[in-house]
Amino acid sequence: MKTLKDLDISNKKVIIRCDFNVPIKDGKIVDDTRIQGALDTIKYCIDKNCKIILLSHLGRVKEESDLEKNDLYPVSIRLSELLGKNVLFSKKTRGEELEEMINQMNPQDVLLIQNTRYEDLDGKKESSNDSELGKYWASLGEVFVNDAFGTIHRAHASNVGIASYLPSCFGFLVEKELNALSILDNPPHPFIVILGGAKVSDKIGVIKNLVKKADKILIGGGMAFTFLKAEGYSIGKSLLDEENIDFCKEILKDYKDKIILPVDVAVTNEYTNEEEYRQKEIQEIAENEMGLDIGEKTTNLFKDIINDSAIIMWNGPLGVYEFDQYKKNTCELLKYMVDKNLKVILGGGDIVAASEEAGYKEKVYHASTGGGATLEYLEGKPLPGIEAIK
Fold it and tell me: What is the rounded average pLDDT of the residues 197-214?
């Protein structure tokens, strides 16, 4: 793995692809975690007397109305506060105005360029990895650093494109992610996987890859009901991924001793946070009921299984986490892991958000910043942003 310390960047113009895809409401950043995650790499480049040019996407840009709400300017303000120095901001993604700003930069200056996906408004040039755009952005610097793990599974002009034309390496955030996740390539045992979330379809590749390595895969969340249906249980009005029932049947047949399903669930009649729920055994779910969380017996079963684990990989909450009363068992299992000092990797997305809200994110072995990137890594897929620098 070629990292930042493997290249001589002193006094050079360094382009860093960051992941500043942060939630912004009414022009204010709601959560700056991703900005904080880029600081080590940026500060290292400042210490090396570099001129630092930052690129990032924010949201999706499909039409003119998307431009204003996906403006990166608020990120430049927050970055200025965190770095304790003024961060320059270019409203343009290319052209004379941007080039002049770069020409005027002094060593240790930091410049953030407007949202790379503004270039998607004209033929999806960023998202389709337009070679001319990648070459142009590369011409603005001398070294490229990819520190955006969240988009490392995408071939975009601002990552793969630039890396095709410049000496390139990974930043400290990507290095940390890959070092942590690489443990799962050849994991210690017992290796336990916990999968939640809504749909089986989102996790098919992960299940196929990890079921060969894992000692047990514990299934929760909405996806559990498709597995239960495949086992012949009535699931009432619970979430069903009908297209993937056959996949569930096949994987249960081939790995019956590895796949662990809920034995009880929290059921209700309406998809709301207001109505009281009932704990029911899985064989007792009525036609007019839906399961919105695993039950207490299942939580205790999961605790027993993970208790002697060498490492745990967890992706996706075990209940409808947006509703307070259905986040209980996800939080309880997180607390159990932390209290027992178990080695846990949280696989990006909603489970990391859940752990942060509950105050456990900093207490686990690793909480991945990638959602789709982490899932594709766990599927064993080659990731374009990594391959380009390899």
Answer: 92
Catalytic residue among 48, 199, 280, 363: 199
What are the φ/ψ torsions at residue 223 (nearest 5 degrees)?
Answer: -65, -20
Selected catalytic residue, list 59, 205, 372, 380: 372
Active site annotation includes 123: no
Structure tokens at 327: 């986040």
- By C-alpha distance, which of 381, 385, 374 is closest to 181? 374
Of 222, 319, 349, 371, the active-site residue reads 349
Q: Are 350 and 370 in contact (CB under 8 A)?
A: no
220 annotated active-site: no
* pLDDT band at residue 198 under the 50/70/90 scheme: confident
Catalytic-residue membership of 372: yes
Match domain 186-378 to its CATH number in 3.30.465.10, 3.40.50.1260, 3.40.50.800, 3.40.50.10610.
Answer: 3.40.50.1260
Q: What is the pTM of this model?
A: 0.88
Segment 128-155 mean pLDDT:
97
Cis peptide bond upstream of 23, omega within 30:
no
37 is catalytic: no
Which residue is catalytic, options 12, 34, 117, 229? 34
> What is the CATH topology of the domain spanning 4-175?
Rossmann fold (3.40.50)
